[in-house]
Amino acid sequence: MKFREYLGKMKGSTRGSPPRVSNEEILWSWIGAFLGISGVALVSHLFFDGRDMSLMLGSFGASAVLAYGAVRSPLAQPRNLVGGHVVSALVGVLCWKFLNQNLWLAESVAVATAIAAMHATRTLHPPGGATALLAVIGSPAVHKLGFWYVLMPATIGPLVLLAVAVLVNNIPSSRRYPEIWF
């Protein structure tokens, strides 16, 4: 490829901005995200407060965008939503355990390997990259969890988000979730 062609690819396409969604779609996205994140927070509060644990990860906010705002996206489907976090959490914990002496290396290997592992397992979910990174850069409490991090929060949290997504996203006639389970 010539250098000009390479640079030309950076201009983007001529498709323009994405179409505007309806007010109903905006409202249902808001309701789903509110209930999904509230569900994770409530489960965390009821079962994990006082145990130096939290069920909430920042990456769940990004998962909420997909599960409630882009319900038809392949990246938002149950296999990806749950599997992406689980695979990425496992990768992140392993990177922390083996590479924590070189934080920059553990961080970069965790995210890059999580992407590769999600591709290989057909569970690509962009927030999974953050879940892997959080396993490395997290607090001492996160590091103390070790492989428990994979189960709690990285499996239980997405399962709560999924349950809410299945219930809420099927209320309006304009939505259907999931498109495919596996």
TrEMBL record:
Family matches, as Pfam families: TM_HPP
InterPro entries: HPP (IPR007065), TM_HPP (IPR058581)
Keywords: Membrane, Transmembrane, Transmembrane helix
Domain HPP transmembrane region: 18-178
Domain of life: Bacteria
Spans traversing the lipid bilayer: 27-47, 53-71, 80-99, 147-168
UniProt keyword Repeat present: no
Keyword match Transmembrane: yes
Name by which UniProt lists this protein: HPP family protein
Source species: Candidatus Gallionella acididurans
